[in-house]
Design brief:
About 60% of the residues lie in helices and about 5% in strands. The strands form 3 sheets. An 8-stranded mixed beta sheet has the order 3-2-4-5-1-6-13-14, with helices on both faces. Strand 4, helix 3 and strand 5 form a beta-alpha-beta unit. It is α/β, with parallel strands linked by helices and about 900 residues long. It is built from 45 helices and 14 strands. The longest helix has 20 residues. The radius of gyration is 31 Å and the shape is globular.
Amino acid sequence: MQRRGGALLVGPLGVGKSVLLATALRRAADEGRTVLSVGGAGWSSGTRIRGFGTLTECLEAVRPAAADGTAADRPLVAVDDVHLLDTAVSVRLHSLVAAGRLSVLAAARQDAPTPTGIDKLWVERLVEHVEVAPFDRSAMDTVLRARLGGHTDTATLERLWAATHGNALMLRELVEHALEDGSLTCVDGTWRWPGLTRRPGKRLSDVIRVGLRDLSHEEHELVQMLAVAEPLEAEIVAAAGLSRAAEALDLRRIVTVERSRSRVRLRLAVPLSRVVIASRMSDLTAARLRREVADSLERTGARREDDILRIVTLRTEAGLVPEREQLLGAARIALRRREFPLAERLCLLALQEEPSDLDTPALHGPVPDSALFGADLRRLVTRVVRDPEQAVPRVRAALLLGQVLVGRDRPAEAETVLKAALESGVAVPLDEYVGAVHTRVTNLAWSLRRVQEAGELLDRTVAEVGADRAGLLHGTRVLIAVMSDRLQEAVALGDTALDATAPELPLAQSVVPTVAFARSELGDPAGALKLLNRYRDVCDEWDTDAQLLANSVSARCSSLLGHLRSAAEALDAVHRYDPGHGRPVLLQALLDRCRLLRMLGQSEQAVALLRGAIASEAAHEYPVTSAWPLAQLAGALAESGNHSEALRTLVEVRALRGEVLGFPISEDEIAYESALVLAYTGDHSSAAAQAVALAERAGAAGRTVRATNALLLAARVTEGAAVRFPHRALLRAARTAGGLTRVLADYAEALADGDGAALTDVCDRLVEMGALPLAGEAAAQAARAFRASGQHRKGREAQAACRELLPGSGPALPPWVEADTRPERDSASLTPREREVAVLAATGMSNRDIADRLVVSVRTVENHLHRIYHKLGITARNDLQRGLDKLIGRPRETNRMAPLRLYEGGSEHVA
């Protein structure tokens, strides 16, 4: 504003242009400038801003400044929705600005053409052309914290992002609506929102409908069709005669176009609008549109599995309930795709009574977790035994429903359904019966912690069906051993089952990936790969989860052998499981992929993937608990420099671990990420202590890889030769694994010995593998070791190698390596508990909320804060964030809004 004649704010509807305009006008008025508003832009009673109805009236009333005056002397004219001006008045405005007699601040919609005079203003560089983008996630978190006065949990943040895509208007209205209906609640000082659980309110609906006004009949028809049946293939849109409407809506940013290989699909640009439009639509219209889309999909041949699922779903929602076999087939597809809510609805429909069956209880809605439901289901099953035609399909539906409920993390309900169906005495196909027993056994052992009961059920079933026909249940036995951290036993059981006879498909696909996983955990990636390669030719016949788990374990083994880039490419190639492509996700594969991305220096990409997984309805399959992805997110955030958010996420992890019990493998993975976050935030002694304890646990269980990683972390954050841990034998054993594990073991020992030459060798080997962040850190550690031994020339060479590996634009060195270049700070003596209290207080939580979250007294919190203030050298709660950033040793993380793009003479700059 001071350098030029003003600014033109351009962006989509709802990104906050008018708010920015009003704020800028108030500040200009406070500075004493003459401010005139057209059409109510930024005007409110009590301000020194003069308001006008039209720009013509404004220009007639204003007294322009002298041509030789300064920018501050010029009257400032503000016009919102400047694209609505006529050409003549826009040309007049341009001439006054060009003569230096007026400044202008205007806002225009991105999808609307602006009049000639306005275009000339920014083309001739008389005003800044500023593109206002939606909030990014970081900015949205800042806005929510300011509005709610506290921390928003990661899953809620992702749900709000998925619903609004950072649109400021949509975000504001959705948050206010959620506060009003009570779905956005503060639990232990953290705000949580499960998503839209009921019909949107009138105001939220009206706000969204404002953005959809002035649509033609065809455009309105397409918007409604997308609301009930998105995504829509371009062929379906063309067949409906709505191609031109799609083009117009794309220009207005109402729809977005997705391209995947040869497939082109359309979706509504703001996901929240789908819910609102569908809720305001006539039931008859919605049913007609769903039938039309289902018929179009069927005419195209329904070549893909998801086409079949969509056809059944659309017809069901249109009131045309398919045959029971079609429902069960669609439910199985939904289960494979991990669309659990949809699978549950389809199973319940398949369980429904015939209209003539009036004396049996109907099963509607979600399955209740109660003995009454179990009794109802058992009565239903008992009754239909007398009708064999009805008994078998209903019991099959119940068995499938039990598997769905396990996927939805509702173990008690799943046990009710599976027990009733399996004990009904109704004969079902053997593969479905065995699969249901496998689900029930793992649910009992993994979720309900009834391991002994699970083992007894497993033994009875194997004896009942015969060992040669048990197939999948041999894999169940191996899985139970892995769950109990008996990895050697798991490998022995698996090898025995596979060597006893030529394994059939169910046996191979259940045993091979699990045994390979156990071998990799035990430090034998070569043996695991050999096993997987033995079944490579038949792997394509396995079900999707088994294939994906085998691919994930194979990529993990490749990375442990040092082939990081090829392992990452192998996981990236399986894009059909990527949530970005609307496909199911196996969490183990996603976590392996994120771990590789982090080793390759792509922590921000890992953060994006983990955020999406946390907000999704993904199942918590073994060995992954709900806290594990959140813990890995905390570690990835710390590595990417977002230390305060990493600490807040770590607090979420600890709260979640108190609610959900884990198993040794998952608990140790979470403990590693926790130690890593502590290390990145300056608490090196606690990080090292936790890492050494973890190494001892993992080493005792034979999990060489995790033990080696933990020992290396302890060595990385401890000063040189001070690491004299009594674990040399463990490191020597890790070397037998070869590949990356051997390099990491050598790295830990070189750090413990302060051996600069050995560290340089480790750096070179890590570079060959592609682990550049770790290689750069090894070079920096080598430089430090060389300097400590008086070898300054070699120290300079190692430092130069570090700078080459980690340029300023790439991954940064971790703070503990930089610590020797910074003076020590007394604030580094914060204890882990003091850090938790400081982080929670910095988010705006009250002492009572903090006490409830950490299960301590309010007085204890007050005592902690007293010590924290003293150590950080602050006197007020508002200074906590600044003190924490200073503690970490980095500049304060500014949760900025999305960058503003400035167009200057055809070139684009980012402010």
